[in-house]
Amino acid sequence: MKGYVFHGAGQSAWEEVPDPAIKEPTDAIVRVRAVTICGTDLHILKGDVPEVPPGTVLGHEAVGEIVETGSDVRTVRPGDQVLVSCISACGRCAHCRRTMYGQCRGGGGWILGHLIDGTQAEYVRVPHADLSVHPLPAAMDSKEAVLLADIFPTSYEVGVLNGHVRPGDTVAVVGAGPIGLAAIATARLFTPERIVAVDLAPSRLEAARKLGADAVADAREAPEQLIADLTDGLGADVVIEAVGVPESFELCTRMVRPGGHVANVGVHGKPATLHLEDLWIKNITITTGLVDTYSTPTLLRMAAAGRLPTAQLVTHTFPLDHMEEAYDVFARAGDTGALKVVLGEEQHDAVAVRAV
């Protein structure tokens, strides 16, 4: 079979790789029908995630068909159409018993495309299949379903739920990339009074408006003043950080009101300053987290019922063997307008699908 292989910083290729095989009785082999590319994959290609060994097939999100299962797999069988979660869970360790699947100590957590071969291939081995794949609702479109492997549960759990968004809140989302846009979409489920999106790119701010942001602000033009004006100087009840750079985190702490929440979702590669000299007196709650994907079954039902705007985030589709072209389009999002790119056996054109 073929897969997209990381060979070290700046080196990768779509090439022949060994077919995956059952190694443990809890494994499943999935034929990949649709995959997407994550910003984390770009970090790996830059060499920012040193624990990924050269020779690893990348990718941690997929939709596909079960073709083989180990003897201990009980919840799926060959022929089932499933979502492959970005997080694998043994279900038995102390963290999994608390639904903290991202912290699994039994050989799970974020392992696909990280510590073992991932989903950007024709087939993938999924460990701990009973908790790590989810049967798809009937007739659900694969290119929309794949967005529920990572960005929607990440935004919902680490952003909206950790931030304790409530009816009537003012919610600011800093960063209107795919994660930030999914945070806007899922924050709306809690009927906040207003959602404000902050970004540098006009195209992403426009996408934020179409997904439900009530106001938008250029990150270079003092967005904290807009928040102050909208809240009589109080600040936002919840601020969701969806970028992962020091400047955006520090901006979030300036925008939040006393007693408010800063929910950090962005993946940070550099230290950020925590201004406790200003924050210690303000009763601020700051949360961080790796997604656990405990919400994935709920989100799948909501998406199948048309309650989540998954289709609006897919801007480009490609056949699976156009992986290098898809990576180039996604990496140059500022030029291409890419939000999420989806590749698969059903995606036969490389033309942008502009839905936002």
Automatic annotation (TrEMBL):
Entry's family note: Belongs to the zinc-containing alcohol dehydrogenase family.
Needed cofactors: Zn(2+)
GO MF annotation list: oxidoreductase activity; zinc ion binding
Enoyl reductase (ER) domain sequence ranges: 8-343
Cross-referenced Pfam families: ADH_N, ADH_zinc_N
Taxonomic superkingdom: Bacteria
Protein name per UniProt: Mycothiol-dependent formaldehyde dehydrogenase
Organism: Streptomyces sviceus (strain ATCC 29083 / DSM 924 / JCM 4929 / NBRC 13980 / NCIMB 11184 / NRRL 5439 / UC 5370)
PANTHER family: NADP-DEPENDENT ISOPROPANOL DEHYDROGENASE, ZINC-TYPE ALCOHOL DEHYDROGENASE-LIKE
Keyword DNA damage among UniProt keywords: no
Keywords, in A-Z order: Metal-binding, Oxidoreductase, Zinc
